[in-house]
Amino acid sequence: MSHSHQRSLFDDEKEIVQNQPETPSPLQSTEPHSYLPEADRKLVIRASAGTGKTFQLSNRFLTLLRGSTPDKILASTFTRKAAAEITDRILLRLAQAALDDADFQSLKSFTGSPEITQKDCLTLLKVLTQNLHRLRISTLDGFFSRLAGSFSLELRLPPGWRLMDEIEAEHLQDRAIDHVLREGELQELKNLMHQLDKGSVRRSVYQLISEHISQFHEIYLRTDAQAWKQFGKIQSPSSDELESIVARLAAEPIENSRMETARNGDIQRIEDEEWPALYKTGLLSKVLGDGKYHRKEIPDNLKSLYLELEKIARAKWLAPWAVQTAATYELIEKYDRVYEQLKRETGGLRFDDLTRRLAHSLSNRSTSDLAHRLDGTIDHVLLDEFQDTSVPQWSVIRPFAQDTTTGTNKSFFCVGDGKQAIYGWRGGEAAIFDAITQQLEDVEERPLNKSFRSSPVVIETVNRIFQGIGNHDGFGENQAVLKRWSNEFPKHETARTELPGYFQLLTSPIPKDMEPGDRDQSRVDAELNQFVANMIADQLKVAPTGTIGVLTRGNAKIGELIYELNQLGIDASEEGGNPLVDSAAVQLVLALFHLADHPGDTIARFHIVNSPLGAIVNLVNHENDRAAHLFSDQFRKRISQSGYGETVHELTGQLAQHCNRRELRRLIQLSALANEFDTISQSLRTSEFVEFVEKQKVQEPTDSRVRVMTIHQSKGLQFDTVIFAECDGLMTKPPKYLSYTPKPGEPPEAVALYQSQEFQDLFPKKLKLALAQTTDKAIVESLCLLYVALTRAVHNLQIIVRPRTAKSAEKTLPKTHAGLIRAALAPTAQLESNVVLAEAGDPAWYQSLPQLDSKSESPPPPRELNIQFKQSDQSRRLPRVAPSSKEGTKLVQLENILPTGDSKAVDRGTLFHAWMEQIGWLDDGIPEDEILLGLATQLGIQGIDLEQSLAEFHQSVSRQALKSLLSKRPYLSAESMNVSEETKQEILQAPVDVTFRNERAFAVRENGSLLTGSIDRLVTISRDSTVLAAEIIDFKTDALPNDLIAINDRVEYYRGQIQAYVQAVSNFYKISPQQISSKLVLLKLGRVINVDVEG
Fold first, then answer.
1. What number of helices (H) and strands (E) belong to the chain?
2. Annotated binding-site ranges
3. Tens digit of pLDDT for each residue in 646-664?
């Protein structure tokens, strides 16, 4: 049926919207929303863990689909994985209901009234499968990306913009930092660094700037300059004022000897400028308090002097804080200006960039203005995991939410759980979820606290812990946060009353040889790791079909636990993946690639020589410089000809016999990463490949029943057994900055670098509020993390804490997750070695799990791997051919071209190519020396005289031949181009456009092969977008005598490579070789040579 009779705020949209084709819902009645009760039209669901959020959202989607088209329903969630699960769930439930009566009976009770039929299910399934391309089930980032594509001009996006990957973004960030370092005045940078690092020189300038940018860039983007100026005008006292107060203090007669000693100590602290110490010890804190020192009243004259001193001390204490905060803002502002410019130049953007631009440009626009760009209206909004939504994301989605809550025949559905808001560090703002009912009209809020996951024992344990955390009395001023969480925690129930369960809170053993009072926690942690591994081994014996999730706070613990499990022969997977460098075999192969770029690295040599790889690559003596440099040259050439993928593939086959199963899996994954690198980079700098591998997280392909992961990675998962193995660390870490936001969804009003709360009485007013808000938020997020950890368990929850090794008695419970759990369940229990502190349920809970088939109870011993690696199947992809493989039309000794005794020649060549890449037209000048030297640093060039190299570079480009070659004017007449006369005449007929590209990458077919590479400099001459001619310029840094025979020999050597370039340019511009000029530039000699090629 048609929707033409409906009225909504989109009815007055342009004719293009009214006339666009639409796939109507086959079940649509005269009242489009008769399937959805009016009371359910605007809902916010507060769904606790395990209560079926995805199930609720899929029910809603299916109900709406009965009266709407797929493209009018926006369903958004937090991850692509979750979006795919929702889509799968919807399609699967329809398919099952269409085929199975039991599944149909279950479905129809959740999809509105009148009841759906099996025929309806089949019809809806058909509609969905035919319109998957119009389905709007995605992450918010995915939706925003499509939205941005429709508003490129309004958002001022760069032409041809694209989303950058992590590696490219980091390279741009490095370039921006490098620019900040190069462009700043030396003294200005010194002052800035001194201010940022509080006078310390422990870190490098680059490291300090990089750290500040990673910590403060996000908050900078959400604030204006005024937010960073909360200190007002601080009147710094003069030296005369300081000397005066010290003199008067020293001269003040004091009868009490204790007071006199304290006064003298304060004077010393003033002279040492230890201003915070004045507030901690001595008389000042007493004057500001009850006015007594050791129960003796402080004389009024002395009080007056100290009150005067306090004003000076406050100014002295606040001034550095204000300066450091201002310096941080100044640094980030400089960096951001350059970073944004680089993104404009490269056309690269991140998802966050799109979200901020959309929030700034579209948040106040009516959705009716957006309809024609979106190919239709959005009548229904479904938001999942809303507690993790950021302020900019909400700014973009809010107009759609407001429209669906105020328009007719529309609906809004939002589901989330403030208790699971664990992504504040990524910008998630749970307060938006808490305030959503105030920001949207007539939205009803409903709780959902019945678990369909966990056993009664697990649920009751969760209730007891979170309703009892307020018993912990060690949080001081932040105690109210615990009390509020405890009081507001809803009592959980479970629908799985039939499930058996078990819970233990227990300590790990103390190492047997550890002396009482020994506080070496590393030994205790190592013992805990072994204890957990043995517990898992025991669990697998009695419950081999059960799943086990081992949860940690950080990534470091994962590797430690995996190691212990592997020692026991237990296969365990790492959720979310880790970089492949967790494998010894991968590290060995990467050492080989590192050596190719740095043949002088004796550590890498030693690593390789003392491994099976040494014999494979014929490196047998790590002290042999010549052998290492010869290997480097040969290996780099091999990569240029075969690519990274095939090189790693061959090495994997050669190392396979030396690897266990896990190491071999990781090598195979390395081979896949190398193939991926081949598709995105033509770089022969093998260190770039190593960097790429080190930053990629790769999950091991295993069906292991044991999975080790951080709590963040466990979100959305469940396990028969959960072992919380890291709950003794501090709940929160000192934040990098304080911020204050008056209302949820608004930008912060106040920002400053972090200062300890022990001095909060000295804080400016808004920064006091910022401290309280920041601290409370950190504690709440830590409580959310604990909640997520405990609610992953289905049957069995095991919480392991460290035993106490100190001799002294514990005065108060620690401010840790372990401390909170103990406060709720075992507040007086002593932390002795390997004891149970609290327990509930049935230790034999596992008897309810499915049992292994008797035939598989004693599995056969694993067979030895006997894998034969075949050569890469050439039929699957074109063989790669590099132009450099065509060098040498006659036999030439390799060291004549690349001297094997000196890797400096390779680095020098790399550096000169990089410097030449920085030159546009010489008419516009040469980059500053600081830029060129900074580039050398960025490339990691070491061991060569940069000043001498720079002088040689300037000498080369100052020669007349190169000046002419790198200038634009000669190309306007093609006077120096080696092209046909006919081509020159065509160029002279009318004005032409002359452009250049440095490092022009290409990939073209050649006789069944794929010719790939990059041209150092490619100049094109065109008219009306049609290329008339091109010139290939290839820079060489070969060391040659200045005689004709040697030069001609070298030109002959490179002729094949130039021929390949000509063919590539001819192919992708569709011009003949006669329209292409080729020049070889010998930079050392300053010679430019025409190279004639066949064609």
1. 39, 29
2. 47-54
3. 999 999 988 988 888 778 8
